[in-house]
Design brief:
Chain B: One of its GO terms (biological process) is SRP-dependent cotranslational protein targeting to membrane. Chain B: Heterodimer of an alpha and a beta chain. Chain B: GO terms for molecular function: GTP binding; GTPase activity; signal recognition particle binding. The complex is a heterodimer of chains A (293) and B (669). Chain A is elongated. The longest helix of chain A has 26 residues. Helix content of chain A is 37%, strand content 14%. Chain A contains 7 helices and 6 strands; from the N terminus they run H-H-E-H-E-E-H-E-H-E-H-E-H. In chain A, helix 5 packs across helix 6. Chain A has one domain: P-loop containing nucleotide triphosphate hydrolases (Rossmann fold, 3-Layer(aba) Sandwich). Chain A has 293 residues and is of the alpha/beta class. Chain A has a 6-stranded mixed sheet, sandwiched between helices. With 669 residues, chain B is of the alpha/beta class. Chain B folds into 4 domains: 108 residues, Beta-Lactamase (2-Layer Sandwich); 183 residues, no CATH class; 91 residues, Four Helix Bundle (Hemerythrin (Met), subunit A), CATH 1.20.120; 230 residues, P-loop containing nucleotide triphosphate hydrolases (Rossmann fold, 3-Layer(aba) Sandwich). In chain B, 52% of the residues lie in helices and 12% in strands. Chain B is built from 28 helices and 13 strands. Chain B has an 8-stranded mixed sheet, sandwiched between helices. Chain B has a 5-stranded antiparallel sheet with strand order 2-1-5-4-3. In chain B, helix 2 runs antiparallel to helix 3, helix 19 runs antiparallel to helix 28 and helix 21 packs parallel to helix 22. The radius of gyration of chain B is 34 Å and the shape is elongated. The chains are: A alpha/beta (293), B alpha/beta (669). Chains A and B meet through helix 3, strand 2, helix 5 and helix 6 of A and helix 1, helix 20, strand 13 and helix 28 of B.
């Protein structure tokens, strides 16, 4: 106890050492505090785009194209994969919207993350968890479909069911947001891939076919059996209306109905793999990414 | 012969590949390997081997680097060294090129550098394993043909194969050795002139000749044919051919002097030699081959392989040869050293709570055993529990636990993932949609659903629940009493139909009717008649949309009763066959599911529904078991067929679809 009193006396004494220590503490503390807080806020999280779609649509190929500028051969994915990509010089990011064409001052092309998810039926929970994950700033979803596959009934149904599921998750994310502000809207690009294939459907027809099919899916889903999870606490507020995608009760489904929930859907065609002339058509997809950054 | 070798990440990106076939093999081979083995985890007979079409795929994985190594070869040939090759390539690759799995950069590789290493590895292994492959191990095969006593100049002016071409490539020309062997067969009257067979590349005649040889000799000839190096086929000038042929004949003559069966050989002038003779000849050639190869390999190696790479490959091969002994040794060391270094144990315990611990087999063993007991307590069959545990173990082995996560928690999350994966169907079943698409359009016909199962599991009850569900959706339903065996079965259905009729009238929804032909008739015929009756007026307003067929309950191990299911499914040809299993049954559910699934064979002898048999399970009496819903997992584990409906109560409305998250939650409680 005596030690403590002695020490206290020293701190209040007008000795030079006590003054120096006090000065050091009072000057350094704010600096340390600032640097600590500054580091806490961290580097700005890069925007994330998620690649979703049925198996074999070309998601991983698109990922390699976005990340490396060239495609590599791919197989069925088993795990998700994130890659860091940079917008090519030819594409203008939305933040460069007001920049003059003649402005030649240095500009850095923005970077972003692309998350590739497996499309196999058993592994779709990866994609769904990526959508509900709030830690990552989700900017957009690229729903890749094989536009040649859509001409068959089975392929169309699979693509529409998966898209229905994804859009419903996004809609719930918007309507059931806990905060008043709600999460930011998400842009959805339906990338009609494999336009180079002879039997592929053009983007416009892909859009109408998907819309028609999704109206049917929506109808049968609403009439179908309840699942066994019903009545559990986290699903308590779910009624029929919240499980209905788009405008409630509407007979036809259009992607425009999703805008109410901050989901902008656009359908753009292209091909990841080079066609017979050795060309990949992805400029429009890049432009979409640039618009949504 | 090896067809292809690929290194790919688990995220599906091919890091490096080599295809010997031209054009490259279709990617569907590896895709189906991934979906069948890695994702759906269908059991194969041998681990790390997968057969598809006429190919055999062998694989190995590097879990922490997230890599899969796949080798493909035709199933006609058996390559014993492929396992070794996989292990060696994995070791080489992981050591030098692999980066951590979670890096933000996509994997990239200096392909050319790895090409060289791979070629060297293949060459090394291939020559080292099978004696018959020794006959022509390398691209400098021609130099080996010259006896060592002859001038070394022949070997020297061989162009060093700077671009190593795989020896598996099918050469255009038969090897000189083959040619000389053939020549020996034709007679040893020492004609130094090369036969046309020897110099003409790849003529069918040489094939014809080989076809006449004995089986062994033919095998060897084929091997040689497939394996002859490019150098030997590349500079096959007539002069060279003559030279080698001449030298070989010389060597042959020497052998003749030492040998004993000289007269016998002399007599054999035609190709239709007695098998014994040809065999003897082949054997002698074999001995010679090995000798030559030994000498040749001493000079041949190192010319084309970089020196350090060579040494490294040696080391890798040596280590891969004793993979079992080394880890065992270290494990023993660890155990004995535990007492001495108590501190490591304490840090281990600490890490168990804080996280960041690298999981070993010993770490996982205890918690996994607990987890297995827990699963069995939830009514999961032991076989299924074992499979889940082993899948968790392979998932977690050599992984590091996340910070502030204990081993138990890590295992729980991993197990939840494994359960989700096993229960989630590959393609979801939307019954209403498939019915609608079936009954509309130009080829409209009623949709036929049939229900099978063991006695007393609730087939008729679930059938009427489905009928109620369909009635709610305004379908016209025909219920067929195909249980012509048990007394009261038809009456039971009639009561259900009467109730449902009054229900549907009250709510003004669909229409239901019973089709019955009494007792004692053949169930298959009744079902067929019912389908014909329902399709009779398919286009009119009075059509039936759905035909629901109830069948007699049968014990799954009674072959006589079970075999009648095959005839039933062929005659009635149902769109969907559901099997009802009760949640109360324990381990037996596995056998039930398997036996029922294998009976549904179509007329071509193939299992219906793409070789699966059934379309789905209905698990009844789920309300009676609380959270012990392990039967779901057992049945899906046994067959890979998804659970589509759950019976959760006594009323018509108590039918539910399966919510995977709900089931997993109950099982992990």
């Amino acid at each position: 106890m005596a030690d403590f009193e002695e020490w206290l006396t020293w701190t209040f004494s007008p000795s030079i050492s006590a003054i120096v220590v006090t000065l050091l503490v009072s000057l350094l503390l704010p600096i340390l505090l600032h640097s600590y807080l500054y580091r806490q806020s961290g580097a700005k999280e890069l925007a994330t785009f998620v690649l979703i779609g049925p198996s074999g649509a070309g998601k991983t190929s698109l990922l390699t194209l976005f990340a490396n500028g060239a495609t590599t051969t791919t197989h069925t994915s088993q795990v998700p994969q994130t890659a860091q990509c940079q917008l090519p010089l030819t594409t203008r990011a939305s933040e460069d919207r007001y920049r003059s064409e003649n402005d030649d001052s240095a500009r850095t092309q923005p970077q972003f993350h692309v998350l590739d998810t497996p499309g196999h039926g058993k592994l779709r929970h990866h994609a769904l968890s990526a959508l509900t994950d709030t830690t990552k700033p989700l900017k957009g979803i690229v729903y890749v479909v094989d536009s040649a596959e859509l001409s068959s009934t089975a392929g169309l149904t699979e693509a529409a069911e998966y898209l229905h599921e994804i859009l419903l998750v996004l809609q719930k994310r918007h309507t059931q947001g806990k905060t008043a502000k709600g999460p930011q809207g998400v842009a959805v690009l339906i990338a009609a891939n494999k336009q180079d294939v002879f039997t592929s459907l053009p983007a416009g027809i892909v859009k109408t076919k998907l819309e028609e099919e999704m109206a049917k899916v929506r109808l049968t889903k609403s009439k179908g059996l309840l699942d066994s999870g019903v009545g559990s606490e986290d699903d308590a507020g779910a009624d029929e209306e919240s499980n209905w995608l788009g405008e409630y009760g509407a007979r036809t489904f259009t992607f425009a109905q999703m805008e109410e929930h901050g989901i902008e859907v656009s359908v753009v065609g292209g091909n990841v793999l080079p066609d017979e002339t050795g060309k990949t058509v992805t400029d429009d997809w890049w432009a979409w990414v640039g618009d949504n950054l | 012969m090896l067809e292809a070798f690929e290194i790919l990440t688990t995220s599906g990106i091919v890091v490096w590949r080599k295809h010997y076939a031209n054009p490259p093999l279709s990617p569907t081979l590896i895709n189906s390997l991934i979906t069948d083995v890695f994702i759906e985890e269908r059991q194969s007979h041998a681990p790390t081997t997968y057969r598809k079409d006429k190919y055999v795929l062998k694989w190995t994985t590097a879990k922490d680097a997230g890599l899969v190594f796949v080798a493909i070869y035709q199933s006609l040939v058996s390559l014993s060294w492929v396992d070794q090759l996989l292990a060696a390539v994995k070791a080489l690759y992981v050591k030098h090129y692999a980066t951590s799995n979670n890096s933000i950069k996509l994997p990239q590789l200096n392909a050319r550098e790895f090409d060289t290493a791979f070629e060297a590895l293949v060459r090394r292994l291939d020559s080292g394993s099978t004696a018959r492959r020794l006959s022509l191990p390398d691209s400098d095969g021609a130099s080996e043909l010259t006896p060592p006593s002859s001038s070394a100049s022949v070997a020297d002016d061989e162009p060093p194969p700077s671009l190593p071409v795989p020896q598996f490539k099918r050469p255009a020309a038969p090897s000189p050795r083959l040619a000389s062997a053939l020549q020996d067969d034709t007679g040893n009257d020492a004609t130094p002139v090369p036969t046309p067979d020897a110099s003409r590349p790849g003529t069918p005649s040489s094939r014809l000749v080989t076809a006449k040889l004995s089986r062994r000799a033919k095998q060897r000839a084929n091997a040689a044919f497939n394996n002859s190096g490019p150098a030997s086929s590349g500079d096959e000038s007539p002069a060279r051919a003559a030279k080698t042929a001449k030298k070989n004949v010389k060597a042959k003559r020497q052998w003749d002097a030492d040998g004993m069966a000289m007269e016998g050989d002399d007599r054999v002038l035609d190709y239709s030699a007695a098998p014994g003779d040809a065999d003897g000849e082949a054997q002698d050639l074999d001995v010679e081959d090995v000798d030559n190869a030994k000498m040749g390999s001493r000079t041949g190696k190192g010319q084309f392989v970089l020196k350090d790479l060579d040494d490294e490959l040696d080391a890798i091969l040596a280590s891969s040869k004793e993979p079992t002994s080394a880890p065992a040794q270290t494990a023993v060391d660890e155990n004995s050293g535990l007492l001495g270094t108590a501190s490591t144990k304490i840090t281990g315990l600490f890490r168990n709570f804080v996280g960041g611990k690298k999981l070993t087999k010993a770490d996982l063993q205890g918690p996994l055993q607990q987890m297995r007991q827990h699963l069995i307590g939830k009514n999961i069959a032991p076989a299924a529990a074992d499979r889940l545990c082993s899948s968790v173990e392979t998932d977690l082995l050599q992984q590091t636990t996340a910070s502030f996560t204990s081993i138990d928690a890590t295992i729980r999350t991993s197990m939840a993932k494994a359960l989700t994966r096993i229960l989630t169907p590959t393609s979801s079943l939307d019954l209403l949609r498939s019915i609608t698409s079936c009954i509309s359009g130009p080829q409209a016909r009623p949709y036929v659903i049939s229900i099978v199962g063991v006695n007393g599991v609730g087939k008729s009850t679930n059938l009427s629940k489905i009928a109620y569900f369909l009635l709610q959706n305004r379908f016209r339903v025909l219920v067929v009493a195909a249980d012509t065996f048990r007394s009261g079965a038809v009456e039971q259905l009639r009561v259900h139909v009467r109730n449902l009729t009054s229900l549907s009238k009250r709510e003004d929804v669909g229409y239901i009717e019973l089709f019955e032909q009494g007792y004692g008739k053949d169930a298959a015929t009744v079902a067929r008649d019912a389908v014909t009756f329902a399709s009779a007026n398919a286009t009119t307003e009075q059509r039936f949309d759905v035909v629901l067929i109830d069948t007699a309950g049968r014990r799954h191990n009674d072959t006589r009763l079970m075999s009648s299911l095959t005839k039933f499914s062929q005659l009635a040809n149902p769109d969907k066959v559901f099997m009802v299993g009760e949640a109360l049954v324990g381990t037996d559910s596995v056998a039930q599911a398997r036996n029922f699934a294998k009976e549904f064979v179509d007329t071509k002898g193939k299992l219906r529904n793409n070789g699966v048999g059934l379309d789905g399970f209905i698990v009844s009496k789920c309300d009676t078991v609380g959270d012990m819903v392990g039967t779901l997992v057992s049945m899906v584990h046994a067959t890979g067929i998804p659970v589509v409906f759950l019976g959760v109560g006594q009323h018509y409305g108590d039918l539910r679809g399966l919510n995977v998250a709900w089931a997993v939650d109950k099982l992990m409680k």
